[in-house]
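quick one, 161 residues, struct below
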Amino acid sequence: MVTKAILFVCLCSLLTVNSQKKYPVTFEDALAHPFSPEAFKGTWISSNEYIYEDDNNLYKTNVETGENTTLLNRTVIDTFNLTDVLVSEDGKWVAIEHDKQSIFRHSRTSLYTIIELETGTRYVLADGKRIQLIVWAPVGAGLVFVMDNDVYYQSEADRLQ
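---
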């Protein structure tokens, strides 16, 4: 009885494969790359959230709830020569990296503007001096940044005024 069931499943799967339409792959298809996967244009900011930019805005998406939140609109994005966006751990602040300058191979400096998402208030980090690296603290809205090869810690983003 088990042998008959296995034989039946195998025959059905062969019939299903043969019933599908097949198209030949041409040389032009190979050159045009129609079989390439679509690229993921987002950045994971936590285990269940990522940010992505489309033609209009910068969004945060929660994959568990499906909720989409607008972080920055196009007018804010177009104000800066945007390189990267870093969201604070508490989700209340955004650090915008802009006006990047390469120094040597993989090193660079940039200007950073911190934006409070709730009010839209902007703060310029380090009085507009060029920064080598910035990282949000793992809790809250603290910042660590490197300027002129020195490491600085700012306990709260709103103290940048």
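The CA atoms of residues 5 and 11 lie 10 Å apart.
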